Amino acid sequence: MGKVYIQTHGCQMNEYDSSKMAEVLLASHRLEKTTDPAEADVLLLNTCSIREKAEEKVFSALGRFRVLKEKNPHVVIGVGGCVASQEGSAILNRAPYVDMIFGPQTLHRIGDMLKEVALKHQPVVDISFPEIEKFDRLPEPRAEGPTAYVSIMEGCSKYCSFCVVPYTRGEEISRPLDDVLVEISTLAKQGVREVILLGQNVNDYRGSTHDGNIADLAMLIHYTAAIDGILRIRFTTSHPLAFSNNLIEAYATIPELANHLHLPVQSGSDRILAAMKRGYTALEYKSKIRRLRKVRPTICISSDFIIGFPGETEADFEDTMNLVHEIGFDNSFSFIYSPRPGTPAAQLPDTVSIEIKKQRLAILQNRIFLNMQKISESMVGTLEKILVLGPSNKNPEKLSGRTENNRFVHFDGTPDMIGQLATVKITAAQPYSLSGELA
Q: How far is CA 392 from CA 39, 143, 380, 418, in A?
């Protein structure tokens, strides 16, 4: 059996895609995953184009792959993901030693592409958008622990002015409801207890049903909660515009739905939100959170923020900080704006200095960190349901698990508890984790 090494950049969707690449090559070529690129027969780079200098990071990684190929000419190098979709065969101009280039929607074809490389001894490029075919052609899902990602849709049709995703992953396409439920049921039989439903805009899920109707995300969550073995459900990434009353009702009626929501707002300024083409105001965002907290008063909210969007004034930033104060966000993914080629926002004049952007980012991140600490400290002395994931990375003699509000807890336990829910009393709060003892 040969070996495949996969280096992944980017979001949870890319992590999911990488796991599927490994499954495809295990089925087609009996290639086993390795964490050592030096022993691999196939080197795959799964790329992300969201952040600044994404392309340069790709070619830097490919440079390291090239050294390995020079030592072992039989090694096959493949580039997948969003940069591959965006750049296509242009990657070969700078890296002619690359053998395969494929997009997020064609990763299921990499077994055939590998055969073609071996037969023709020339690069193969496939960055097409064959819609739902990807999911129909993937091998049976394999569990790798008590938690699993399940992709329920691809692409995005929102076209926010700063985002490249619609151009690299295509328009929104939802998987049929029954197909998703079969995958989740298969994983549950293998010991999965928590599923994380994935999509670029997961709230907009509209899956066809066997009787010709359409299921939204709330309906999918209802059916998922009824599957034997599934104890906890999460979903990401959300768009506020598609956060519906049906979803709020799901939080009221489905205890398996985790007491945590990641709902990217990006800015608290209505002027900036309009320039971003987000389609909602700060007041509308707050209204949805207020309605959600009526049915889940203790729910923790995390979010995404873009700081320094072109034209952002001090008043705009103050609006964002006011929103952070009002909502009390528990965590965030927050970055300085970076223009992405081909997006409308890349053409906007940017007069804010990088020093001011860095200063604003530090202020925001510090405020949210203090919120997170406050929430963690309030959990000391409480009883929490922990999904036990395995031995603790900090101390292998202890177990580690995750609370509903997405905090890791380290405690003494026995191996037979892995994959189950345990009731743990929180005894101490550290900056990024909690300590506890079995109740």
A: 28, 20, 19, 11
Through-space distance between the first and last CA atoms of the chain, rounded to whole angstroms: 46
Residue 263 half-sphere exposure toward CB, CA atoms < 13 A: 25
Tokens describing residue 201: 């805009």
Cβ contacts of 394 within 8 Å, gap of 6 or more: 400, 410, 433
The tally of CA atoms less than 13 A away on the side-chain side of residue 177 is 19
Mean pLDDT computed over every residue of the chain: 93
Write the CA distances from 107 to 112, 157, 181, 205, 330, integer angstroms: 10, 21, 22, 22, 35
User: CB of 81 within 8 A of CB of 14?
Assistant: yes
Distance, CA of 64 to CA of 431 (rounded, Å): 35
Beta-sheet pairing, 42-47 with 76-81: parallel
> pLDDT of 63-120, one tens digit each?
999 999 999 999 999 999 888 888 889 999 999 999 999 988 888 899 999 999 999 9
- pLDDT tens-digit map of 142-161: 888 999 999 999 889 999 99
